[in-house]
Design goal:
alpha+beta, 3 helices, six-stranded antiparallel β-sheet, 110 residues, structural constituent of ribosome
Length: 110
Amino acid sequence: MSLKLSPNATRAILTLLPKELPPSLQSKSGNLCQVLSRYPRDGVGKVVHQSRWSQKGIHGCYWQVTRTQLKLEGKHGKAWGRLVWKGKLVSPREELIPGSLKYNWMSGCS
């Protein structure tokens, strides 16, 4: 069963929403903090990669997020993790993930 809303009801709902959705509700790529803020526990345990890695044909590379400190509703912050590069664990210890605010990130493996 589908629910159909009248045009007036649709307009009323749209006026209640902010013009720009907060990072936690956006589905596009963004800086690392924006991507991680969409998940429970601020993305701890998630696998993420820089979108430019896929564009350059670099596959099997990702960061496994182990800790985060997000602020400003997920627009800014820091994240730590372990790097897996082309299927091999590069950083056995947790380290600060570089380029978290500089590059676009996506969830999953490149």
